[in-house]
Every structure is written in C-alpha cells, then in structure tokens.
Amino acid sequence: MLEAFQSDTRAIEGLPIRLVIALVVGVAAMSVMLNMLSGVQGLATSELDVKPDPDVVTPGPQDITFTVVDHEGNPVEGATVVVKSGTADIEKVEHKKSGDGGEATIHLDPELGPNREDGTLVVDVKPPAGSSFVDRRDNTEILVVAK
After folding, report:
1. Is 0.90 surpassed by the pTM of this model?
2. Which CATH architecture has domain 46-145?
3. Where are the domains positioned within the chain?
4. Where is this region: Disordered (predicted)?
C-alpha cells in the first residue's frame, strides 16, 4: 500500500496552481484595501506654523503680529496663538485668535533677566476646533535681544 502512494504523483499536480491562484487573489485584495485607505481624506492632517513679525525684538512694550499658516503657507483663521516665557520673560501667558488672513496681533512687554543679553519667547498655536490641523512641531520663537 505504501508503494501505491509513493508512485502516485497526481496529488501534487494541482498544488502549485492553487498556491499561485491564492497568491494572486491575496495581492489583489490587499491592493484594493490599500487603495481604499489612501482615498480616505478624514485621516489626513495638516501641520500649522506661526510666523511672528518681527521675530527679533528688544525689551519693552510692543505689538507683534503673528500669522498662522498651514503646511502650504495658506493663512488659517480661528487658531489660537499662545505666547509664554522662555529664556526671556513676560508677565503672563498671552493668547489671541487669528482673524482674517490668519493674523493675530498681541501686545507683549518682554524682559531679559539680569546679565542676559538675549532670550526667547515660546510661541504655540492651538488649531481651530473641529479642523484637521495639528501643531506637533516647534514653532518659530521670538528672539529678545538687549538694546
């Protein structure tokens, strides 16, 4: 009986064809699923950045205009710009929403510590609620230099 199985080669005739068919069907199914996932726009996010003008200032009271932009440089309305002390000091955390053209003007009075010739103010941005924007990267800091 064992000799009958050893000499029978019909059992493996269909196996390679079945493997090829399974592989082709699997690759086609994976291709369709990846195409569906890449077409979903709800998963896409856009990084925000803040451009202060001026970005180098001296100590003392002044108005600084911040422009909030997306990754393509388009202005973003409704984002909240937050400025806080870094190695330079301001009395309290300041914030303002960006309006038309993505601009927000904030009145700041930066100070440098004793024996400091320069310092920075940290700028963050909170994206508008319900938007696909994010702020994961550091934004441009404001450099404060002694007069």
Report:
1. no
2. Sandwich (2.60)
3. 2-41, 46-145
4. 96-117
